[in-house]
Amino acid sequence: MNEFLPSFTPAYPVLSNDRPAALGAAVLDSSLYSYFKHQMHHAGDQALALYPGIADEFAARFGGATKLLKLTSSTTPTMYSS
Fold this sequence. Notes:
Largest sheet: 2 strands, antiparallel
Helix content: 40-55%
Number of strands: 2
Order of helices and strands: HEE
Strand content: under 5%
Radius of gyration: 18 Å
Distance between the termini: 27 Å
Strand order of the largest sheet: 1-2
Structural class: mainly alpha
């Protein structure tokens, strides 16, 4: 996996009592929270558009295809179609 993914150092690698941190949008007022949620939705849409190419690259390097599943209200995942 390290061959495929870039290195990543999280800003807050460990949650601890010694170094508390607020890691959510709960501290935002309502107008900023709505904007934050909109940006999250937009980022998710962009990720879905990129996924097929990334999955193809992964399969070419390591073999095996990884399909994108869409979770619905049923208990059975279905294939995602954009």
